[in-house]
Amino acid sequence: MRMRNKPWAKEFIEQHPEIIIQNPENYKGKWNELFGNNHPLHIEVGSGKGQFIVGMAQANPEINYIGIELYDKVIVKALEKALEAGSPPNLRLLKINAEELEKFFKKNEVQRIYLNFSDPWPKKRHAKRRLTHERFLKIYESILVDEGEIHFKTDNRGLFEYSLVSMSQYGMVLQYVSLDLHANEPEDNIRTEYEEKFSAMGQPIYRLEAKFPK
Ligand code: SAM
């Protein structure tokens, strides 16, 4: 993702601790207390500019959502969208690295993880950085409930093929696979920024749902 320098981003983020949680390690095992209910928790890893997670939070008020993003300059766009949407009470954002998810979430705390248009890292020597590499699947499993789900969308055929194999080898069960999501787009599909961009270029969108074993 190309980014211009935005020196104001950090300050703007600090002005909105009600949405971008400061010291998120304090909430490990306690996210339901923060949301004030026992609704399921779904997280998006690599939420970018936030169109998906904000849209999901608005469409599904009975589910709690947390968007996770690595960069200030990107998450600030998601913050703007959340504010424009009236700060949905079931939405929070975290500026953290997915490698550290276990610092912030306990086993059984998360019901579902969304991965949308994750960076493909096409070179073999960078395979470990792919968010569907075994080392990330282990991390996801350690915070999800038993039979917790991963829902994954991408335009990148290579990453999709890799992910099918990686998840199968890990022992996950595939529940849904589409090689052209938009050919028969479900009414409740919320498009991400990348999804709109690649779809407009005529690229098929791949999607899968998989669950971890018991
Ligand atoms: N999901 C958005 C979409 O579909 O429009 C953004 C896709 S963009 C290609 C991938 C995003 O994942 C980037 O914003 C990047 O900063 C973020 N990302 C990559 N690796 C990450 C990690 N280890 N932890 C958190 N976010 C990460």
TrEMBL record:
Q: Where does S-adenosyl-L-methionine bind?
A: E44, E69, N97, D119
Q: Does the keyword Signal apply?
A: no
Q: Which Gene3D superfamilies match?
A: Vaccinia Virus protein VP39
Recorded family membership = Belongs to the class I-like SAM-binding methyltransferase superfamily. TrmB family.
Q: What biological function has been recorded for the protein in this entry?
A: Catalyzes the formation of N(7)-methylguanine at position 46 (m7G46) in tRNA.
Chain sites annotated for binding substrate:
K123, D155, T192, E193, Y194, E195
Q: Does the keyword Methyltransferase apply?
A: yes
Protein name as annotated:
tRNA (guanine-N(7)-)-methyltransferase
**Which keywords are on file for this protein?**
Methyltransferase, S-adenosyl-L-methionine, Transferase, tRNA processing
What is this enzyme's catalytic activity, as reactions?
Answer: guanosine(46) in tRNA + S-adenosyl-L-methionine = N(7)-methylguanosine(46) in tRNA + S-adenosyl-L-homocysteine
EC no. given is: 2.1.1.33
Top-level taxon of origin: Bacteria
- Give the pathway annotation: tRNA modification; N(7)-methylguanine-tRNA biosynthesis
The uppermost taxa in this organism's lineage are: Bacteria, Bacillati, Bacillota, Bacilli, Bacillales
The encoding gene is trmB
Query: Can you list the GO cellular component terms from the UniProt entry?
Result: tRNA methyltransferase complex
Cited InterPro entries? SAM-dependent_MTases_sf, tRNA_(Gua-N-7)_MeTrfase_Trmb, tRNA_methyltr_TrmB_bact
What organism is recorded for this protein? Ureibacillus thermophilus
